[in-house]
Amino acid sequence: MPRVSGWSEAKQCMPVAAGMPVELGKCDIPALVELERLCFSVPWSAKQYETVIGNEPFHLFGIREGQELVGYLTLFASAWEMEILNIAVHPSWRRQGYGQRMLSHVLHLCRKMGIKRGYLEVRRSNIPAQSLYTAFGFEEVGVRRRYYPDNREDAIIMRLDLETDPSRTD
User: Which of 41, 66, 118, 128 satisfies CB 3.0 to 4.6 Å to 150 for a cystine?
Assistant: First the structure.
C-alpha cells in the first residue's frame, strides 16, 4: 500500500474531548485483546496487533470512559482509499453512540485527507452494524460467500464514495 501523506497532520487538527476517539498504541494491546475476545468469535491476538501497530497504512482509534477502553476502530488507509477492518464496542457500552462517534471521526479524517472511497466487510447476520454503515452512506456492492472461518457466514462488502457529499456532517 502506498504511504499515506497527510494522515498525521489530519489527526493533529482534530480536537480531543472526553468520550471522543483518540489514537491508540502498543500500550493499549492488552485492553484491545480483551475487547476482541468479548466482541468477536475470531479475535485478533496480541501478536497480530504488535505486528501492525506503528505501520503507516494501519490506524487505530479508540474511546475510553475513565481508564476503560469501551470501543475501537481499526483501518488501513492508502492515498485514495481506506478499508475499515474492525469496529468493536464493549457489550456494556453498546447502543450509546460510540460506534457512530468512531466512524464519524474516521470518515472526517479520510475526507480531510482526500481519500476517495471506503470499504468494509460485515457479517450478513450483523444487522445493527449494517444499519450503522448504511446511515453513513455505505452501500452493499458485493458478497464474499462463506467468508468467516468460524461459521462460514457470508460477508457483505460495503462501499462509501467519500466524494459524493463533502458537506455531510457524519
Answer: 41
Q: Of 23, 56, 121, 153, which is the active-site residue?
A: 121
| Cell, residue 59 | 490506524
H or E stretch covering 17: none
* pLDDT tier, 165 (very low <50, low <70, confident <90, very high otherwise): low
- Determine contact, residues 159/82, Cβ cutoff 8 Å: no
Does residue 115 carry a pLDDT above 90? Answer: yes
- Domains of the chain, first to last: 7-161 (3.40.630.30)
Task: Tell me the backbone φ, ψ of residue 53, rounded to 5 degrees.
Answer: -65, 130
133 labelled catalytic: yes
CA dist 96 → 4, 89, 168 (Å): 32, 10, 21
